Amino acid sequence: MPHANHYVIIMAGGIGSRFWPMSRSNFPKQFHDIxxxxxxxxxxxxxxxxxxxxxxxxxVVTNESYGQLVQQQLPNLSQDQILLExxxxxxxxxxxxxxxxxxxxxxxxxxxxxxxxxxxxxxxIFRQNIITGLEACKKENIxxxxxxxxxxxxxxxxxxxxxxxxxxxxxxxxxxFTEKPNLEVAKSFLASGDFxxxxxxxxxxxxxxxxxxxxxxxxxxxxxxxLTDKYYSTEEQQSVNAAYITCRNVSIDYGIMxxxxxxxxxxxxxxxxxxxxxGSVYENSEKDEHGNAAHVYKLLSYKSGNNxxxxxxxxxxxxxxxxxxxxxxxTENALLICPKKDEQAIREIxxxxxxxxxxxxx
Amino acid sequence: MPHANHYVIIMAGGIGSRFWPMSRSNFPKQFHDIxxxxxxxxxxxxxxxxxxxxxxxxxVVTNESYGQLVQQQLPNLSQDQILLExxxxxxxxxxxxxxxxxxxxxxxxxxxxxxxxxxxxxxxIFRQNIITGLEACKKENIxxxxxxxxxxxxxxxxxxxxxxxxxxxxxxxxxxFTEKPNLEVAKSFLASGDFxxxxxxxxxxxxxxxxxxxxxxxxxxxxxxxLTDKYYSTEEQQSVNAAYITCRNVSIDYGIMxxxxxxxxxxxxxxxxxxxxxGSVYENSEKDEHGNAAHVYKLLSYKSGNNxxxxxxxxxxxxxxxxxxxxxxxTENALLICPKKDEQAIREIxxxxxxxxxxxxx
Lengths: 362, 362
Hints:
Two copies of one chain form a homodimer.
Chain A: E1 6-11, H1 41-50, E2 58-63, H2 67-73, E3 82-85, H3 91-105, E4 110-115, E5 119-120, H4 123-139, E6 143-148, E7 159-162, E8 172-178, H5 183-192, E9 195-205, H6 206-216, H7 218-225, H8 236-246, H9 252-257, E10 263-268, E11 272-273, H10 278-283, E12 293-295, E13 298-302, E14 308-311, E15 317-321, E16 326-330, E17 334-339, H11 346-357
Parallel strand pairs in A: 1-2, 1-4, 2-3, 6-10, 12-14, 13-15, 14-16
Antiparallel strand pairs in A: 4-9, 5-11, 6-9, 7-8, 7-9, 8-10, 16-17
Helix pairs in contact in A: 3-6, 3-7, 6-7
């Protein structure tokens, strides 16, 4: 039974430039069905929550230019549930806006904040973790995070270290948040047994997070608190746009999580991936007998292996020969062929394209 | 001044499967502007001849399914100048059909037979060679061929050996036609100085070639001679279709050239390429500073060199990284990525696609 005080904030403002050329500034990755599962990433995220959170309590924060896309892909959302940022200012303002808005109509709200583009394999475990977290945040003045038990010394994620790992508890007090480590450090994290990956999924009551904003980001707290009169009114957008102009760019991790003393973590194993790069698409795809992950109508592979191949045209045949460990992504007006190991270069490629052509190809 | 007895037969029946995916069975390579020069290959060939051969004397032989394409691309041709084969039977029937047809209206015709898809860099030299050949064929009962002085021991061409190479003559008596040699043999050909590449361009009078058909391919001579009443009539197509059913598959090289004693060759250097493969497109293209040949709107190349990259969409941006010596060809519904050294595998790929999808992608 969905609980009327339970809310979700889906953060969907990213551009996903590491997913170029499929992800474009006017159609970013969260709106694509990158893995060919029948729904876009944001639709999967929405539907995952809609099984146990009232649909009227699901909010999406995105860039104003994606408002129509959100409306098209999630037609059950009312305009009030789609929060439009005139400009991206990282996660802290995004969360502040949503929390102060929701607080206006429900000061007893407890909420989960989650990115739009995560893969979750085991939804039952995920749901149970979320409910555990929401119930805890209802009872206590704490901030909860979901931590993913690491399966490899990944250098692409932040890590969370927690206290008292030998005990058996549903959640643990957080000792430290860490930045992305180098490989050696990541290996030591893995060996120590008290580190989990930071999933970027947080839970708290509006009261608790409001107190944290007051304590650690008082300027931001004031900025969005003073708009309380405007929320759910015809003046909301204009007021929010004005607020964003003066708002600093701060992540919730840096602004609050790393400083607050009341942060807890649920270490979990719900088959999580943040689907951040084409390499992660490769990891999360079925492979053919040569280890190729094909998201095209038909891939013909000769003397080729371990590639990830995708196309937006669902009639496209791709033939590769003598290609190993590559990313091949084809769209109507752009084609990328790049080694998987160089996937970090895609951002640089996008920057070069922007220099050459403006917005036409990015 | 164009000479009323001078004719051209452009052979344009090929499918060009080594140019897949750009060349398709319903739009083969001779109708593409593969090098981006502003005209298709058949248009270039036509226009090259039209500077010195009367346009009413230029005939095209092609498959019936390409009749409309020829008409569209060469609108000056009348229906009588477009000869449609119901099925390909190699070059001998194609030439017999054209010769017996032209003989009906001009028994004094002398003609050049040329493929539709050759590149000629130096048109003045080419034109001079053709005129020399036509004049010689008018005076004597000989078959003339154009031979290309080899610049490398190419194993992709047939060779022609000629007599008396130390003399200085406009043309030489042919000693032998050879098949494509292996590399060692090709090297010895190059060293010997009396071998030239077989360009597949032939010249003769209708009388001379008629005698040769009578002598070496009498069944074919009879087949097309007996249709003389039908040429230039409404019954032509139906009669030709019936003739092709019983007609053997024979090349003019094997059927006549290798056997006739009256074959001569003009060794020449008019910058010839048969543009048979993507490798030859590479050779005939301008390269960027990394040796990439780009036939796309824009190629962004990182740590890549010596590739040939083409796309049918003239707005397409292609980004390659870590790619050396590859063929990359993109069309609306098919993409090929294949090492240049494996270009001969493209025929096998096309056969596999035909097995999988029928005609949809070939």
